[in-house]
């Protein structure tokens, strides 16, 4: 299988706080790779570095063989940040249309993709509502739709289902599986254990290190836990 993401010896500090210490990651095409860890462990910092938004103090990142940061690779990556970066005075359709034009899609293609991604996140009926009238969950769904819009090979999703109801969360995960089966690669940060179980591989981030990596089953077995939640707690998931 083809390696899509490689992180080598990444370290980063904010002031005196060393958030990431020596991170090595290799993610293959078609994997759903879950990042777990207590709040403040550095998950967002790590994904921002993979995407190329923040540059690490040390270490290197490659996405599809190209060293990051690289503006060109933004075509390859769909990034959904933890806080929504949306234009509140515009409608959801206008937001998506704007991002579609940034990616160079013509009007017809934009219209087609907007319908497709709006369907995935169940926003078809609310496309013409101004985003500042959206609920928190609707904004998350719109952010996810925008990350999917340009059909990127790599999706980096920072807590994509926070504030989304269980039924829709389930259908969004079905979509993630469909994308994976199409050969897309997904990195997902999450605090939700039943989502973690759906990942092909998980990494536990704690104290600046990736303290464990493996399939959910491997992580459970390593600490003789009976569930991924128990394994998470056993790896020190409850405290940073
Ligand atoms: N721009 C910044 N300036 C200073 N400190 C920062 C900055 N960004 C993150 N940090 C600190 O780095 C640490 C890791 O933060 P990060 O957001 O990466 O954690 P996280 O694992 O994503 O947490 P959560 O699960 O709560 O989202 C925290 O202590 C945070 O306060």
Topology:
Blueprint: E1 3-14, E2 17-28, E3 32-36, H1 43-51, E4 58-63, E5 66-67, E6 77-80, H2 92-102, H3 107-120, H4 136-149, E7 154-158, H5 166-181, E8 185-189, H6 193-196, E9 201-206, E10 209-214, H7 216-222, H8 228-234
Parallel strand pairs: 3-8, 3-9, 6-7, 7-8
Antiparallel strand pairs: 1-2, 1-4, 4-5, 9-10
Helix pairs in contact: 2-3, 2-4, 3-4, 7-8
The chain binds adenosine-5'-triphosphate.
Organism: Pontibacillus halophilus JSM 076056 = DSM 19796
Keywords: ATP-binding, Nucleotide-binding
Pfam family, one: ABC_tran
State the main characteristics.
240 residues; alpha/beta; Rossmann fold; globular; binds adenosine-5'-triphosphate
- List low-confidence stretches: none
The string of secondary-structure elements, in order, is EEEHEEEHHHEHEHEEHH
N→C terminal distance:
34 Å
Ligands bound here?
adenosine-5'-triphosphate
Structural class: alpha/beta
Count of helical stretches: 8
- The CATH homologous superfamily of the domain at 1-76 and 191-239 is termed P-loop containing nucleotide triphosphate hydrolases
**Which fold name is given in CATH as the topology of the domain at 1-76 and 191-239?**
Rossmann fold
- Beta-strand proportion: 25-35%
């Amino acid at each position: 299988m083809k390696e899509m993401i490689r992180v080598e010896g990444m370290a980063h500090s904010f002031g005196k706080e060393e958030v990431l210490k020596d991170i090595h990651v290799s993610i293959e095409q078609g994997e759903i790779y879950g990042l777990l860890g207590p709040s403040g462990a550095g998950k967002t910092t790590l994904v921002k570095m993979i995407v190329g938004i923040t540059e690490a103090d040390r270490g290197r990142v490659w996405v599809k063989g190209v060293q990051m940061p690289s503006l060109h690779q933004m075509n390859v990556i769909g990034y959904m940040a933890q806080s929504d970066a949306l234009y509140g005075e515009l409608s959801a359709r206008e937001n998506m249309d704007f991002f579609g034009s940034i990616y160079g899609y013509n009007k017809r293609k934009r219209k087609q993709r907007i319908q497709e991604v709006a369907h995935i996140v169940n926003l078809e009926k609310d496309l013409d509502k101004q985003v500042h009238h959206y609920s928190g969950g609707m904004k998350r769904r719109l952010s996810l739709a925008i990350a999917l819009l340009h059909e990127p090979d790599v999706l980096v999703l920072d807590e994509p289902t926070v504030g989304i109801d269980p039924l829709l969360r389930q259908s969004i995960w079905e979509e993630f599986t469909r994308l994976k089966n199409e050969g897309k690669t997904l990195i997902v940060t999450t605090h939700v254990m039943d989502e973690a179980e759906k990942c092909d591989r998980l990494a536990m981030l704690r104290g600046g290190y990736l303290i464990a990596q493996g399939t959910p089953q491997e992580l459970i077995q390593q600490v003789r836990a009976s569930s991924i939640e128990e394994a998470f707690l056993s790896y020190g998931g409850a405290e940073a």
